[in-house]
């Protein structure tokens, strides 16, 4: 939890975020991911100063459990002084103990955000889905919370002005915006209507622009002229030299704080050396790598997320 200190911006964790989206689809399947097609709403987590603190917290915790399809998980929530926003004890269940930072006694509008992250820890624990290392595992948790419909609350908890700042979670505001935009594109949502924080709205628009750039990388036909020209040059080089070449390398030409280019493609010979050159590139929806023959325009379907892609390989 950043409370009054500097807020990191940009996309320093973007590759881990993309890996987390892929991991969700692989572990849950397309059908299960699409059972989360409706996000939790502001009304679901509304919490006024007139509400009883402990009854209100239990109500919001139950709403998170319902949203994440955890019918037999009982959350027992308490408050104490701590450095972090919250902590959950991951035992075998069916009861899970969550501790919230004492500051949430008077900052009730952000209790839903803190509980969303902690209940997602329970969900991932039950799935046995984790990344090695605390940092990457927390990034996975933030990404899953956002992609499965509750993490817009974490982005909305981001507020910053000249005198103070607050941010929950491990992702930067722009990274939260990126994952939220990926979800919005997939499920046809408009989360910008839910924000109460102007800074969160700005971060979302930046993340949306980055998510759209993922859909405009070669060999996708939506790629711009410059990208198509660079792709043709890289393909010709690979064909002439008979070896795999790489293009649109992550971070190439990116300035400080800029995002790596999400459309990193690479070439390789066909298996056994017979047939056309092959190109590998990430699916713009789930980031799983797709491998196709480099032989012109074609339509492909991602086997993981079922996205239909128009390509010119």
What is the compact description of this entry?
The protein is of the alpha+beta class. The protein has helices spanning 14-28, 30-33, 53-67, 111-127, 134-147, 152-156, 173-187, 198-214, 225-241, and strands at residues 2-3, 74-80, 86-89, 95-101, 159-160, 165-167, 246-247, 265-268, 278-282, 289-293, 297-301, 308-312. It folds into 2 domains: 2-214, no CATH class; 225-312, no CATH class.
Describe this structure in words.
Helix 3 (53-67) crosses helix 4, helix 4 (111-127) crosses helix 5 (134-147) and helix 7 (173-187) packs across helix 8 (198-214). The protein starts with a strand and ends with a strand. The longest helix has 17 residues, at 111-127. It is elongated, with a radius of gyration of 21 Å. Helices cover 38% and strands 16% of the residues. It has nine helices and twelve strands. Mean pLDDT is 89; it is low at 248-262. The chain is an alpha+beta fold. The chain has a four-stranded antiparallel sheet with strand order 7-8-9-10, covered by helices on one side. The chain has a three-stranded antiparallel sheet with strand order 1-6-5. It has a three-stranded mixed sheet with strand order 2-4-3, covered by helices on one side. The chain has two domains: 2-214, no CATH class; 225-312, no CATH class.
């Amino acid at each position: 939890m950043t409370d009054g200190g500097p807020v990191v911006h940009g996309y320093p964790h973007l590759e881990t975020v993309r890996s987390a989206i892929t991991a969700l689809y692989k572990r849950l399947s397309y059908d299960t991911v699409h059972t989360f097609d409706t996000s939790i709403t502001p009304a679901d987590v509304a919490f006024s100063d007139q509400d009883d603190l402990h009854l209100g917290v239990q109500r919001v915790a139950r709403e998170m459990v319902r949203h994440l399809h955890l019918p037999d998980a009982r959350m027992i929530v308490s408050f104490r002084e701590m450095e972090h926003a919250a902590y959950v004890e991951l035992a075998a269940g069916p009861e899970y103990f969550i501790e919230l930072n004492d500051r949430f006694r008077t900052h009730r509008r952000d209790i839903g955000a803190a509980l969303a992250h902690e209940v997602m820890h329970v969900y991932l624990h039950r799935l046995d889905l984790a990344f090695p290392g605390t940092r990457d595992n927390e990034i996975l948790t933030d990404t899953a919370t956002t992609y499965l419909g509750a993490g817009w609350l974490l982005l909305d908890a981001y507020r910053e002005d000249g005198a103070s700042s607050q941010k929950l979670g491990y992702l930067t505001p722009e990274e939260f915006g990126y994952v939220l935009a990926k979800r919005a594109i997939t499920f046809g949502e408009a989360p910008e209507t839910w924000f109460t924080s102007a800074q969160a709205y700005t971060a979302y628009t930046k993340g949306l622009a980055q998510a759209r750039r993922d859909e405009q990388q070669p060999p996708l036909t939506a790629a711009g002229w410059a990208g198509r020209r660079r792709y043709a040059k890289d393909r010709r080089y690979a064909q002439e030299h008979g070896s795999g070449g790489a293009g649109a390398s992550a971070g190439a030409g990116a300035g400080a704080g800029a995002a790596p280019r999400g459309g990193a493609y690479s070439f390789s010979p066909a298996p056994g050396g017979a047939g056309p050159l092959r190109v590998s590139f990430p699916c713009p929806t789930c980031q799983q790598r797709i491998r196709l023959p480099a032989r012109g325009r074609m339509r492909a379907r991602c086997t993981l997320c079922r996205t239909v892609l128009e390509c010119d390989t």
